[in-house]
Amino acid sequence: TGVAMMKFKSPPVNSLSLEFLTEFSISLEKLENDRACRGVIITSALPKIFSSGLDITEMCGKSVEHYAEFWRAVQEMWLRLYGSNMVTVAAVNGSSPAGGCLVALSCDYRIMAENPKFSIGLNEAQLGIVAPFWFKDTFVNVVGHRIAERSLQLGSLHPAPEAHKLGLVDELVPEEKLMEKAAAVMAQWLALPDHARQLTKTMMRKAVLDRLVAHREEDIKNFITFVSKESIQKSLRMYMEMLKKKKH
């Protein structure tokens, strides 16, 4: 059908580790280079979670070299997904904080399971960290400046109904109808001539993509400086402890 399905399966919560991000980028590149593939539906193979976002363990107590390699992989994933020539539909079938939200925001269309227990948002501020400018740009392009500003400052995680009301997701459907709906939306987008849709997408997204490309090394340096601070390391360690307690 010219449509690929990509399912995240990295238990327990699909965190975006260096290995996961690398594999994700390689898979996207393969699909991008496959002439027969015109669209990709991205979803999770794990119940209740789309992706929990960046893997905190990659940012805690590691070397400067490791931080640089990890951050480059995060950038690469976003540049490939946000700039993809394919139609990208996120079928968000669980909660999607922080980096998980970024993955969904980077797609062309977001459908979320109609479950108030599932939430989505860029909640970095809650962990004492700041969403980078290109996360922010992607968010602003979806929901507009005011909603993004409030949501980012508060580190809000929006339950599905609220996320829909804010325009953070395009549609809510019952969980069991999610894949059917994603396929229908994909068919609607693929009914258009590829070149016209691709050029329009490029026109809409180019400025934001170019901004990261131009400042990529600087952005890596900023990340390293920030994440290496003892105060940040401390709050990340506290967050990891809290997560461990939750599991028990």
Automatic annotation (TrEMBL):
Q: Which UniProt keywords apply?
A: Acetylation, Fatty acid metabolism, Isomerase, Lipid metabolism, Mitochondrion, Transit peptide
On assembly, the entry states: Homotrimer.
Catalytic activity, as annotated:
(3Z)-octenoyl-CoA = (2E)-octenoyl-CoA; a (3E)-enoyl-CoA = a 4-saturated (2E)-enoyl-CoA; (2E)-tetradecenoyl-CoA = (3Z)-tetradecenoyl-CoA; (3Z)-hexenoyl-CoA = (2E)-hexenoyl-CoA
A GO molecular function term, named singly, is: delta(3)-delta(2)-enoyl-CoA isomerase activity
Stated name of the protein: Enoyl-CoA delta isomerase 1, mitochondrial
Does the entry feature the keyword Nucleotide-binding, yes or no? Answer: no
EC number, UniProt record: 5.3.3.8
Which superkingdom heads the taxonomic lineage of this protein's source?
Eukaryota
Task: Give an example GO biological process.
Answer: fatty acid beta-oxidation
Q: Which PANTHER family match?
A: ENOYL-COA DELTA ISOMERASE 1, MITOCHONDRIAL, ENOYL-COA HYDRATASE-RELATED
Its chief place of residence is mitochondrion
What is the main EC category here? isomerase
- Provide the Gene Ontology terms for cellular component: mitochondrial matrix
Query: What job does the chain carry out?
Result: Key enzyme of fatty acid beta-oxidation. Able to isomerize both 3-cis (3Z) and 3-trans (3E) double bonds into the 2-trans (2E) form in a range of enoyl-CoA species, with a preference for (3Z)-enoyl-CoAs over (3E)-enoyl-CoAs. The catalytic efficiency of this enzyme is not affected by the fatty acyl chain length.
Stated family: Belongs to the enoyl-CoA hydratase/isomerase family.
Q: Which SUPFAM superfamilies match?
A: ClpP/crotonase (SSF52096)
Pathway listed: Lipid metabolism; fatty acid beta-oxidation
Cellular compartment(s): Mitochondrion matrix
